[in-house]
Design goal:
Layout lengths: L1 E9 L3 H32 L5 H14 L8 H20 L16 E5 L12 E2 L3 E4 L3 E6 L7 E10 L2 E10 L7 E3 L3 E6 L5 E3 L4 E2 L4 H4 L1 H13 L5 H35 L2 E5 L3 H4 L6 H7 L1 H14 L3 E5 L24 E3 L6 E3 H20 L3 E3 L24 H11 L8
Parallel strand pairs: 8-16, 9-12, 12-13
Antiparallel strand pairs: 1-5, 1-7, 2-6, 3-4, 4-5, 6-7, 9-10, 10-11, 14-15
Helix pairs in contact: 1-3, 2-3, 5-6, 6-9
Length: 422
């Protein structure tokens, strides 16, 4: 079983918005209350108060604080589960100890789980095309722009700026992986910054550098925010304007990545891609802004789960694999500075775009890696256009001693203003 969330924008009335704010404030207070208890108990007894003890305190708290009764009991219990998980992750996974939540810095949110009752009438949450039914509140209008698959497990109501959203978490069975894959359905991708992605078929995908395009506007709004007096209404208005612009930039970037990843996932069953050290590469001051603006990490996440939903697979190639310096036909290697756009092989006479050459090499390496893993069988069709027949015996790890991050940093300084990393 696997889980997937669907996010929809809500259209609540003013009274419903006020109710959301009250419920989110109540759950935030409950988190801070039990966190303070845990800190005090640990200082005195070196022990914690976990979720079962916290939940047993809720009836008493509701008698002392009448406003807690207006909040759905499931939302209060879920906040106890969240704090319990945060404390355990501090020791199990090395995460930081949970902190107190502030209304000033935290986005308001609360989560309501779905009832396990098989009857529709016994469900806490009911979903239709036009609205969602929330306990103790009733029907709330929303924009259901796509259908929901699977069984609803929980709904998280969260505020982002001036809008409210509902994230519906669903559970459904894993997609069966494809057992026989044709070589025609394997795609290799090569990263870039001028051209975001180049495929082994020679197709390029461009993205709009939305952050760099809005950088002047963002700078102007941040300066206006810095001039405002702390705690004033004008400062809050300026903060909202900066927040809106950041959200607009993020939404445009996410929309571009969703479109590209969906198209690639629908074109191939297996996609090979380089497992780059994005954080390490971003330390290069000449390329860091362009790398983060492209959203490489988010693209890998989107492409991975979309391929998995279709029964496909995302294969990550070793970052030290010399895809750009290797001829895709004969396997000969040679230095490839960043200013060289075309790969000209002196052994076989091949002349090919450097990004397409790298993508073809990544595609071939993905086929080899998939065959070695034995999870799916590649049906070879003798496609000589991708160099599979003439290049099966080449050892991909023979020239892996040159680190790509070092190669990138060295040549970027010599080719100032050149944005395509390899």
């Amino acid at each position: 079983m696997k889980h997937k969330s669907y996010q929809y924008r809500l259209k609540p009335t003013e009274q419903q918005k006020q109710t959301f704010v009250q419920w989110a404030s109540a759950t935030r207070w409950l988190w801070n209350h039990f966190l303070a208890q845990n800190k005090k108990k640990y200082e005195n007894e070196r022990k914690f108060i976990f979720k079962h003890e916290q939940i047993l305190q809720l009836p008493k708290l509701k008698k002392e604080l009448e406003w807690l009764k207006s909040v759905p009991s499931q939302a209060l219990q879920q906040k106890c589960f969240d704090l319990d998980t945060a404390i355990k992750n501090c020791y199990k996974r090395g995460a930081g100890f949970p902190k107190f939540k502030s209304k000033k810095w935290q986005s308001d949110s609360f989560r309501i789980p779905q009832s396990n009752s098989p009857k529709a009438s016994g469900r806490h949450i009911k979903i239709t095309q036009s609205h969602i039914t929330i306990p103790k509140l009733g029907d709330v209008k929303w924009i259901k722009h796509r259908p929901i698959d699977g069984r609803v497990k929980s709904v998280t109501i969260k505020q982002k700026g001036e809008h409210w959203f509902a994230s519906v978490l669903c559970e459904f069975e894993d997609s069966k992986p494809i057992q026989e894959i044709s070589e025609d359905c394997v795609i290799g991708l090569d990263w870039g910054l001028k051209s975001f992605i180049t495929t082994s078929d020679g197709e390029t995908y461009e993205t709009d550098p939305v952050y760099q395009r809005n950088q002047k506007k963002l700078k102007k709004r941040n300066r206006a925010l810095a001039r405002c007096k702390l705690g004033s209404k004008r400062r809050n208005q300026a903060r909202i304007r900066v927040q809106k612009l950041h959200r607009k930039i993020a939404n445009i970037r996410k929309d571009q990545l969703h479109k590209i990843s969906t198209k690639i996932a629908n074109c191939g069953d297996v996609v090979g891609i380089e497992d780059l050290n994005i954080k390490g590469m971003a330390k290069n001051k000449h390329l860091s802004k362009s790398i983060f603006d492209s959203g490489w990490g988010m693209f890998q996440t989107l492409l991975g789960y979309k391929l998995a939903d279709n029964g496909g697979q995302l294969i990550k190639i070793d970052r030290f694999y010399t895809s750009s310096k290797t001829c895709s036909v004969c396997g000969e290697t040679k230095p490839m500075p960043l200013d060289m756009k075309t790969y000209n092989c002196f052994s076989c006479g091949t002349s090919i775009d450097r990004d397409v050459n790298a993508a073809v090499n990544i595609r071939r390496e993905a086929i080899k890696k998939l065959n070695r893993a034995g999870t799916a069988r590649i049906q070879a069709r003798g496609d000589a256009s991708h160099g599979v027949e003439s290049y099966d015996s080449y050892d991909s790890t023979s020239d892996a001693s040159v680190k790509r991050e070092k190669f990138l940093s060295t040549w970027a300084l010599e080719a100032k203003g050149f944005l395509d990393p390899w």
